[in-house]
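Repro:
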Amino acid sequence: MKRIITLLVSVITTLSALATDYTDQLEVIVNGESATQNATISVTKQDDGKYTLSLKNFVLQSDDQTMGIGNITLTDIEGVEKDGVTTIKINKSINITEGDDTSVGMWMGPMLGAVPINTIAELRGDKLYVVIDIDMMSSLQQIIKVVFGNGGYQLPNSGFERFQSTGEPVAWHGFNTATGAFAGWAKGKVSQSDVVRPGSNGKSSALVKSGDVFGIVNNGTITTGRLNADSMSAKDKSNHASLDMSVTETDKNGDPFYTVLNARPDSIVVWVKFKQAKPNSDYPNATISAIITDGTYYQDPEDKTYTNKVAEARNEEIATEGGNWQRLAIPFVYFRNMAEPKAILVTASTNAEPGKGSSGDEMYLDDISLIYNHALYSLTIKGQKVELQEGVTEYTLDVDGDISEDDIVATSNGMGSTIEKKIEKEDSKTVVTVVALSNDLKSSTTAKVTIPQTNAIHPSMVVPVAADEVYSIDGKRVNETQTGRIYIKKGKNGTAKKVIRR
């Protein structure tokens, strides 16, 4: 009996180890409007090596309104592991079941019948990233996009809604956590503000304000890395922001002094509201920069030539524009070394020149996002060009011969986007589907190309014969035909033409 109990305990422990719960921020986007909440997704590795993903008690929340959807469970999902990342993809219809949260009065999911679900998930270390598209066009006239976790694709706390006890935003740092001999002297401040950009769903922004020490202007600065103040000379490069993923020290919130990035964004977008305490025509501009690196030590401004940079986005000409909010889109410029992206250092300052401007200059920051392009830039099939048009997804192209994936050449305007190809053959046509998927897995562009099967017997191959011969569309000679099918009729005079049996 003791052995049986021991065996049962061992089995239960093993089964429990196969299921892992991941709790993170979940963003729900409906018709372009988003709301965030915390959620838990369970991932189980099945005995056959496939995966099960379960999102229990899924609800749509907007302010004080809640709509219960139910339990979303995806089973028998294939996982592909590469470079330490397990990617899981599934596209099928499922039935959403009733949740068990008694605080929800009604669950909509069970009423919807089979709902098409398109899901991409990534398991990376102890982090889970999931993108789910729920197609409810037939029932609710909308597609619901669910994004769980960060995945190393966006900046944490990018809306500046959460702040630390130090007064700095969560995952961001100012002079309160700076290092260096003069860190304690710095007067530039970062604080929470209730002034938000137009159309924001958030309730706060970050206010970066300059100060002065013995008459020397101390630019207000905020960074995803860590500030260092080691000189009284504002232009000394020992005053900088830096990152280094080998450093294990964290801030009071438990966050490291760097931000992980696992992708290649095409631009960074930020909302800025800038005002100088005293207008300075010689030094009128604020600045923001974003440097993608391989995770090894890097500082901005640079004190030497750094070869570990992957890409850089920089704007040193942010004007006051009457003190109004501005939406800035800054493109990344990629370097030839093409190192793997591991981290990003984002830094904003009240003046583009160290020690310039005035004490009391103000710079508000809100809703920073990394943008990933996914448009198809070009597409050829066996050398034949498809004339791509914006907003058009279906095309027709005449191409001779069988088609393989190697015959399909496609490019995207997204630096890190991936191209997926699919070939489907039917009796009278071949359909080629090409998808450009954004590097953050959230968005895609599809082109579906129909190729009529005109070359089962090409006219140039026809030679005169004594009598008519009939071939199927794939070139096989047949003695009997069927109603509704397409055939190739080769005549004794050397002609060939398509016919349909009526």
